[in-house]
Design a protein that fits this description.
The structure is a single chain. The protein has ten helices and two strands; from the N terminus they run H-H-H-H-H-H-H-E-E-H-H-H. By secondary structure, the chain is mostly helical. The chain has one domain. It has a two-stranded antiparallel ribbon. Helix 1 runs parallel beside helix 3, helix 2 runs antiparallel to helix 3 and helix 2 packs across helix 7. The chain is globular. It starts with 5 loop residues before the first helix and ends in a 6-residue tail after the last helix.
Amino acid sequence: MQIPTPEQAWAYLMDAAERNPGPWVEHSRVAAEAARAIAAHHPALDPKVAYVMGLLHDIGRREGRSDMRHVVDGYAFLHDKGMDDVARICLTHSFPVPDVRAAAGQWDSSAAERGFVQDYLSATEYTAYDRLIQLCDALALPSGCCLMEKRLVDVVLRYGPNDFTVAKWNAFFDIQREFDQALGRSIYCVLPGIVQGTFGCDPRC
Protein backbone atom coordinates (compact mmCIF):
# COMPACT_ATOMS: atom_id res chain seq x y z
CA MET A 1 0.00 0.00 0.00
CA GLN A 2 1.39 3.38 -1.03
CA ILE A 3 1.08 5.59 2.04
CA PRO A 4 3.50 7.63 4.17
CA THR A 5 4.56 6.54 7.62
CA PRO A 6 2.71 8.06 10.58
CA GLU A 7 5.77 10.25 11.19
CA GLN A 8 5.75 11.51 7.60
CA ALA A 9 2.01 12.09 7.71
CA TRP A 10 2.35 14.11 10.91
CA ALA A 11 5.15 16.17 9.33
CA TYR A 12 2.93 16.89 6.31
CA LEU A 13 0.12 17.99 8.62
CA MET A 14 2.38 20.24 10.71
CA ASP A 15 3.80 21.88 7.58
CA ALA A 16 0.25 22.41 6.34
CA ALA A 17 -0.72 23.89 9.71
CA GLU A 18 2.03 26.50 9.35
CA ARG A 19 0.93 27.32 5.83
CA ASN A 20 -2.77 27.56 6.69
CA PRO A 21 -3.52 27.41 10.43
CA GLY A 22 -7.07 26.77 11.52
CA PRO A 23 -9.46 24.39 13.30
CA TRP A 24 -9.16 21.96 10.37
CA VAL A 25 -5.81 20.84 11.81
CA GLU A 26 -7.28 19.67 15.13
CA HIS A 27 -10.23 18.18 13.25
CA SER A 28 -7.75 16.10 11.24
CA ARG A 29 -5.97 14.93 14.40
CA VAL A 30 -9.25 13.94 16.05
CA ALA A 31 -10.43 12.11 12.92
CA ALA A 32 -7.12 10.23 12.81
CA GLU A 33 -7.38 9.17 16.45
CA ALA A 34 -10.97 8.02 15.89
CA ALA A 35 -9.94 6.04 12.80
CA ARG A 36 -7.09 4.38 14.68
CA ALA A 37 -9.35 3.48 17.61
CA ILE A 38 -12.00 1.91 15.39
CA ALA A 39 -9.46 0.10 13.20
CA ALA A 40 -7.82 -1.41 16.30
CA HIS A 41 -11.04 -3.35 16.91
CA HIS A 42 -11.80 -4.14 13.27
CA PRO A 43 -10.87 -7.58 11.92
CA ALA A 44 -9.57 -6.34 8.55
CA LEU A 45 -8.10 -2.85 9.10
CA ASP A 46 -4.61 -1.66 10.10
CA PRO A 47 -4.71 1.03 12.81
CA LYS A 48 -1.52 2.72 11.49
CA VAL A 49 -2.94 2.96 7.98
CA ALA A 50 -6.24 4.28 9.35
CA TYR A 51 -4.40 6.88 11.43
CA VAL A 52 -2.38 8.14 8.44
CA MET A 53 -5.48 8.41 6.30
CA GLY A 54 -7.28 10.32 9.01
CA LEU A 55 -4.39 12.76 9.42
CA LEU A 56 -4.22 13.49 5.70
CA HIS A 57 -7.84 13.46 4.56
CA ASP A 58 -7.99 17.29 4.57
CA ILE A 59 -4.34 17.93 3.64
CA GLY A 60 -5.45 19.93 0.61
CA ARG A 61 -6.17 22.79 3.00
CA ARG A 62 -2.39 23.34 3.05
CA GLU A 63 -2.91 25.45 -0.07
CA GLY A 64 -4.87 28.10 1.84
CA ARG A 65 -8.46 29.00 2.53
CA SER A 66 -10.77 27.08 0.23
CA ASP A 67 -14.04 25.20 0.20
CA MET A 68 -14.44 22.01 -1.85
CA ARG A 69 -11.25 22.77 -3.74
CA HIS A 70 -9.36 21.20 -0.83
CA VAL A 71 -10.30 17.71 -2.04
CA VAL A 72 -8.64 18.33 -5.40
CA ASP A 73 -5.58 19.98 -3.86
CA GLY A 74 -5.14 17.15 -1.37
CA TYR A 75 -5.36 14.51 -4.08
CA ALA A 76 -2.84 16.37 -6.25
CA PHE A 77 -0.38 16.82 -3.36
CA LEU A 78 -0.30 13.13 -2.44
CA HIS A 79 -0.63 11.82 -6.00
CA ASP A 80 2.47 13.81 -6.95
CA LYS A 81 4.31 11.99 -4.16
CA GLY A 82 3.23 8.61 -5.54
CA MET A 83 0.92 7.92 -2.58
CA ASP A 84 -2.27 7.11 -4.44
CA ASP A 85 -3.69 4.84 -1.72
CA VAL A 86 -4.08 7.80 0.60
CA ALA A 87 -4.55 10.42 -2.14
CA ARG A 88 -7.88 8.78 -2.95
CA ILE A 89 -9.08 9.48 0.60
CA CYS A 90 -8.82 13.21 -0.11
CA LEU A 91 -11.47 12.74 -2.79
CA THR A 92 -13.70 10.10 -1.23
CA HIS A 93 -13.95 11.36 2.36
CA SER A 94 -16.53 14.03 1.57
CA PHE A 95 -18.78 11.80 -0.51
CA PRO A 96 -20.57 8.93 1.25
CA VAL A 97 -22.97 9.62 -1.61
CA PRO A 98 -20.63 9.57 -4.65
CA ASP A 99 -22.05 12.64 -6.36
CA VAL A 100 -20.31 16.03 -6.46
CA ARG A 101 -23.69 17.71 -6.04
CA ALA A 102 -23.82 16.23 -2.53
CA ALA A 103 -20.92 18.41 -1.36
CA ALA A 104 -21.67 20.28 1.85
CA GLY A 105 -19.64 23.31 0.71
CA GLN A 106 -19.32 25.31 -2.47
CA TRP A 107 -17.29 24.18 -5.46
CA ASP A 108 -14.51 26.74 -5.79
CA SER A 109 -12.49 24.71 -8.30
CA SER A 110 -12.74 24.72 -12.08
CA ALA A 111 -15.46 22.88 -13.98
CA ALA A 112 -12.80 20.50 -15.29
CA GLU A 113 -11.59 19.71 -11.76
CA ARG A 114 -15.13 19.14 -10.57
CA GLY A 115 -15.66 16.82 -13.54
CA PHE A 116 -12.48 14.95 -12.62
CA VAL A 117 -13.78 14.38 -9.09
CA GLN A 118 -17.12 13.08 -10.39
CA ASP A 119 -15.42 10.76 -12.87
CA TYR A 120 -13.14 9.47 -10.13
CA LEU A 121 -16.01 8.83 -7.72
CA SER A 122 -18.10 7.13 -10.41
CA ALA A 123 -15.23 4.76 -11.25
CA THR A 124 -14.26 3.99 -7.65
CA GLU A 125 -15.52 1.15 -5.52
CA TYR A 126 -15.27 2.33 -1.93
CA THR A 127 -13.11 0.26 0.38
CA ALA A 128 -13.49 -0.17 4.13
CA TYR A 129 -10.83 2.53 4.54
CA ASP A 130 -12.81 4.98 2.40
CA ARG A 131 -15.90 4.34 4.51
CA LEU A 132 -13.92 4.51 7.76
CA ILE A 133 -12.59 7.98 7.00
CA GLN A 134 -16.02 9.13 5.82
CA LEU A 135 -17.32 7.95 9.18
CA CYS A 136 -14.55 9.53 11.23
CA ASP A 137 -14.81 12.82 9.34
CA ALA A 138 -18.42 12.82 10.57
CA LEU A 139 -17.37 12.08 14.18
CA ALA A 140 -14.60 14.65 14.60
CA LEU A 141 -14.97 18.18 15.85
CA PRO A 142 -11.77 20.15 16.53
CA SER A 143 -12.57 19.77 20.23
CA GLY A 144 -12.79 15.97 20.09
CA CYS A 145 -14.87 12.99 19.02
CA CYS A 146 -18.62 13.49 19.25
CA LEU A 147 -21.90 11.79 18.45
CA MET A 148 -22.28 11.82 14.69
CA GLU A 149 -25.58 13.65 14.87
CA LYS A 150 -23.86 16.63 16.50
CA ARG A 151 -21.26 16.86 13.75
CA LEU A 152 -23.85 16.47 10.97
CA VAL A 153 -25.94 19.29 12.41
CA ASP A 154 -22.78 21.40 12.83
CA VAL A 155 -22.01 21.05 9.12
CA VAL A 156 -25.54 21.97 8.05
CA LEU A 157 -25.58 24.99 10.35
CA ARG A 158 -22.36 26.23 8.75
CA TYR A 159 -23.07 25.42 5.10
CA GLY A 160 -26.83 25.01 4.91
CA PRO A 161 -28.76 21.97 3.64
CA ASN A 162 -29.02 20.87 0.03
CA ASP A 163 -31.02 18.32 -1.96
CA PHE A 164 -28.64 15.54 -0.86
CA THR A 165 -28.54 16.26 2.88
CA VAL A 166 -30.95 13.51 3.95
CA ALA A 167 -29.36 10.98 1.57
CA LYS A 168 -25.93 11.82 3.00
CA TRP A 169 -27.14 11.46 6.58
CA ASN A 170 -28.66 8.08 5.76
CA ALA A 171 -25.39 7.03 4.11
CA PHE A 172 -23.45 8.00 7.22
CA PHE A 173 -25.81 6.00 9.43
CA ASP A 174 -25.42 3.02 7.10
CA ILE A 175 -21.64 3.26 7.48
CA GLN A 176 -21.98 3.47 11.25
CA ARG A 177 -24.10 0.31 11.27
CA GLU A 178 -21.52 -1.43 9.08
CA PHE A 179 -18.75 -0.67 11.56
CA ASP A 180 -20.89 -1.45 14.60
CA GLN A 181 -21.44 -4.88 13.11
CA ALA A 182 -17.76 -5.38 12.23
CA LEU A 183 -16.69 -4.42 15.76
CA GLY A 184 -19.45 -6.40 17.45
CA ARG A 185 -20.32 -3.34 19.50
CA SER A 186 -21.14 0.34 19.04
CA ILE A 187 -18.28 2.41 17.65
CA TYR A 188 -18.91 4.78 20.56
CA CYS A 189 -17.60 2.11 22.94
CA VAL A 190 -14.09 2.53 21.51
CA LEU A 191 -13.91 6.24 20.69
CA PRO A 192 -11.80 8.37 23.03
CA GLY A 193 -13.39 11.30 24.88
CA ILE A 194 -16.82 10.83 23.35
CA VAL A 195 -18.76 12.21 26.34
CA GLN A 196 -16.59 15.30 26.71
CA GLY A 197 -16.51 15.89 22.95
CA THR A 198 -20.27 15.64 22.63
CA PHE A 199 -21.46 17.39 25.76
CA GLY A 200 -18.43 19.49 26.74
CA CYS A 201 -18.35 18.12 30.27
CA ASP A 202 -16.30 15.80 32.43
CA PRO A 203 -17.60 12.23 31.85
CA ARG A 204 -17.61 11.73 35.66
CA CYS A 205 -20.20 14.43 36.23
